[in-house]
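README, section 4: Worked example with a bound small molecule

Sections 1 through 3 covered apo chains. Here we extend the same pipeline to holo records, where the ligand is supplied as SMILES alongside the sequence. The molecule in this example is zinc ion. Nothing else about the input changes; the structure line simply encodes the ligand pose together with the chain.
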Amino acid sequence: MSKDLPRDLSKDFSLGTVEVSSTPLERFEEFLQSRGKRVTQQRRALVEKIFKRHEHFDADDLIADLSFGEGDGKVSRPTVYRTLTELVEAGLLRKMSIAGRAVYEHDYGYPQHDHLHCTQCNKLIEFRSEELLAIRDAVAAEYDFRVTGHRLIVSGICSECSSTQRGRKRRPVDLI
Ligand SMILES: [Zn+2]
Ligand SMILES: [Zn+2]
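The generated complex, written as structure tokens:
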């Protein structure tokens, strides 16, 4: 099964960047302005944190990460949720639903890609496939359909999980 997949997928996590004219924060400011809102200190801190590096995260990951910063850097839970929603609406973040969990990642300034999701360890592996895009476009053309985007999440077991204990869930106790 796995031999049908492209090779070397797990080696390169970040797919690089796409040239964009403004920074995520500038773009977010424009978006908020168009809605009569302002970028507060808290929103600014969140955007800076989120766009420091590309990763897949959920609201809890972000909150756990932020709790390390004390004092002025403290951001309330409702603010985190509200800001995540705004960032999705502004086209800066992409939201996916994976195993019932809302997972976010950069959309603005990051290449279009798809995911392999390991159902054992929850890892997300990113890949790009020109063949897949060609098939998508061909199918869309057949239906006279104008494509604005797509999302493909392939579920399965990653190579690490299938080599450790034949894919059984690894628990901390197994590692001792
Ligand atoms: Zn895995
Ligand atoms: Zn991704």
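What to look for in the output: The pocket of zinc ion (ligand 1) is lined by residues 118, 120-121, 123, 158, 160-161 (CB under 6 Å). The radius of gyration is 19 Å.

Section 5 describes how to batch many such records.
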